[in-house]
Specification:
Radius of gyration: 19 Å
CATH class of the largest domain: Alpha Beta
Structural class: alpha+beta
Strand order of the largest sheet: 1-2-3-10-4-9-8-7-6-5
Largest sheet: 10 strands, mixed
Number of helices: 7
Order of helices and strands: EHEEHEEHHHEEEHEHE
Number of domains: 2
Helix content: 25-40%
Number of strands: 10
């Protein structure tokens, strides 16, 4: 294990991510704390590993300290929230069924071009696609997600929205994707409006969603629906030993 993984007075500053490790093929961790002074060693960490971190966009102290220790900025994560959105009941939208798994996985593998994994030049696109596909399919194995909506077009699965219960009585849009052949037909909007109709049943009072600053179409969609920007964070990755391509 790398020096980074054992740094810190309590040894618990890094949260292991065995699921991501199974996909990247090396120890994976999430940095628990944004303050770097008590977390990072003086010397750069060695050995194969992957560490992700999120820090506030301001002040820059944490971000600069992490970059000095070998982390690299890959993304700016934006959080949007909304309450009292217009609820919808588009007939093209339904709840997911077990037999949707393969179609959902295939759509997820092709749809996320600006995720933090896709924006990281050290991670091959094929690996990033596999991560998003496995992420979506986790819903069907009970590993992630509390609700999934399916969008249909001409009798085929054309998109999905994966949601989970968040803190402070929020329902979080975890993943949202529409197949390329079915874009510009209002399916993403219809799924979000259907999710708004599910809020009461999920004992939630608001919706939350995260996206990337690089994903301008998503930002525009959420703002057009009534979501408002509530937070921004810098996302950094560390590759001990490098992943290669």
């Amino acid at each position: 294990m790398s020096a980074l993984a054992t740094a810190g007075p309590s040894g618990g500053n890094l949260l292991p991510d065995p699921w991501l490790q199974s996909l990247l093929g090396r120890p994976c961790f999430t940095l628990r704390r944004t303050s770097t002074a008590a977390v990072l060693p003086v010397d750069p960490p060695v050995g194969p590993c992957f560490v992700s971190a999120k820090v506030p966009v301001a002040p820059l102290d944490d971000s600069l300290a992490l970059q000095d220790s070998g982390f690299r900025v890959v993304d700016t994560a934006l959080t949007f929230e909304a309450s009292d959105l217009q609820a919808g009941n588009d007939r093209r939208i339904r709840l997911a069924r077990p037999d949707d798994r393969s179609a959902v996985g295939a759509i997820a593998a092709r749809s996320f071009k600006t995720s933090r994994f896709h924006l990281d030049p050290t991670i091959p696109n094929e690996t990033a696609n596999r991560i998003k596909s496995a992420w979506a399919e986790n819903y069907f194995t009970g590993r992630r997600g509390d609700l999934m909506l399916i969008a249909e077009q001409d009798g085929e699965v054309a998109g999905f929205l994966q949601a989970l219960r968040g803190s402070n009585d929020t329902l979080v849009i975890d993943l949202l994707a529409v197949a390329q052949a079915a874009t510009r037909r209002g399916l993403a909007r219809a799924m979000i409006e259907r999710l708004a109709a599910e809020v009461d049943g999920q004992q939630a009072t608001a919706l939350r969603v995260g996206t990337q600053a690089a994903n301008l179409p998503s930002c525009r969609l959420y703002e057009s629906l009534g979501f408002r920007l509530t937070a921004a964070e810098i996302v950094l990755h560390f590759h001990g030993g490098g992943l290669g391509r």
